[in-house]
Design goal:
Elements (H helix, E strand, L loop, with lengths): L1 H21 L31 E3 L3 H11 L3 E7 L4 H16 L4 E6 L4 H9 L7 E6 L2 E7 L3 H11 L2
Parallel strand pairs: 1-3, 2-3
Antiparallel strand pairs: 2-4, 4-5
């Protein structure tokens, strides 16, 4: 019985060492002697390329600064909240577009993240969620409402030129 206990402990240590060496995280051992219960967080083996960033803004000052620094480039602003179902559905697509269209600035205002963000959203006349506003040269050139990925993509492509 002692041999089995030592063998199982050694096996768990070896398995843990292999997991750590391979970069896996989130493992735990089972409580029962002789059981090897490893939980491993799944991790992608592929190399991740640098991604474009959706910048979250939450105040009028951040809004003005972001528009000013964009110059004549297209700026797309996603107005959402954490409780909005359609906002959650379109969010991954918005992130994907930020990776696809590198010459476009992508901003997000989460209206329920702070009183300042709520005030910013209201000052921009947002009445439906999600809403997307398109700015170019510090002027709003378009807006769309709803979680319609193709409509969003079409508007991006129309206004980036």
């Amino acid at each position: 019985m002692l041999f089995r206990s030592v063998w199982c402990t050694a096996t768990m240590i070896c398995a843990a060492s292999l997991l750590l060496a391979s970069g896996a995280a989130g493992f735990s051992f089972g409580a029962a002697p002789g059981s090897l219960s490893l939980r491993v967080a799944q991790q992608s083996a592929r190399t991740v390329a640098p991604r474009a960033v959706v910048l979250e803004i939450s105040s009028q000052e951040e809004f003005d600064k972001a528009l000013g620094s964009a110059g004549d480039s297209l700026v797309v602003i996603d107005y959402s909240t954490s409780w909005c179902g359609p906002c959650k559905i379109i969010a991954p697509k918005f992130d994907e577009f930020s990776e696809q269209y590198k010459n476009v600035a992508f901003l997000k205002v989460m209206g329920d993240s702070s009183p300042e963000a709520d005030k910013l959203m209201r000052s921009q006349g947002v009445r439906a969620l999600p809403s997307f506003h398109f700015w170019k040269g510090s002027k709003q050139v378009d807006s769309i409402s709803g979680a319609k990925a193709q409509t969003l993509q079409d508007a991006i492509e129309t206004h980036m030129n």
